């Protein structure tokens, strides 16, 4: 009930902001090409739906595929860095420094190296999603209770058994936190990749709208990006609730014993 009230309050606040936006545009008589009203953006969204939908689907497919690759690569690197301290000491600083390279600077180089196909686009999305997953997973592994690790050592568990039976499931909440952040980044990464060269997608739609000064279509693309990011975030959150179901209740039950 409390969560429903909070969500309702957020929706009302967003509606209020849109109302203020609509009012300011009409009272100040702002030109439509400079800042369209929300009602005009909504109308354009319905009118351009047949042409916008294929572009949105192309972006969704690209974002999901890139996110999946980013999750696999991110978790693999996190496991390797956690399990092997000498590799972590060598590559962890490089991993941190790599985040200081703007993706818009690196993207043209990927186009030069790999062409205009699917590969450079997937690399861009993977790079965007990769870092939060690695950091979140490593933090989750490190936060495993030392007492439980000691107990596993006492019963003769190997290092691999301790990791897969204790540290890995214990890190689920942290891993899903990183994946949720990466999911919101994946759509942005897909749009950036489409700016560099694609036949269709929200990035292509937005570029054509900008070149023709159709600001209303640009805002349609922006709202679609936000909506798709929220949908991906909610999907990951739903999967998290299924996979981590009962962990909180089990922890509370253990404390009472």
Describe this structure in words.
This protein is an all-alpha fold and 257 residues long. It folds into two domains: 1-30; 37-256, MetI-like fold (Orthogonal Bundle), CATH 1.10.3720. The protein has helices spanning 2-27, 38-47, 49-83, 85-98, 103-114, 118-142, 146-154, 159-170, 172-195, 202-211, 215-243, 247-256. It is globular, with a radius of gyration of 23 Å.
Order of helices and strands: HHHHHHHHHHHH
Q: How many H/I helices?
A: 12
The total number of structural domains is: 2
What is the approximate shape?
Answer: globular
* Assembly category: single chain
Instruction: Indicate the percent of residues in helices.
Output: over 70%
CATH superfamily of the largest domain: MetI-like
Structural class: mainly alpha
- What does the main sheet amount to? none
Low-confidence stretches: 249-257
The CATH class designation of the largest domain is: Mainly Alpha
Beta-strand portion reads under 5%
Structure summary, number of beta strands: 0
Radius of gyration, taken over Cα atoms and rounded to an integer in Å = 23 Å
Q: Please give the CATH architecture of the largest domain.
A: Orthogonal Bundle
Rounded to the nearest angstrom, the distance between the terminal CA atoms is 30 Å
Please, what is the average pLDDT? 86
CATH topology of the largest domain: MetI-like fold
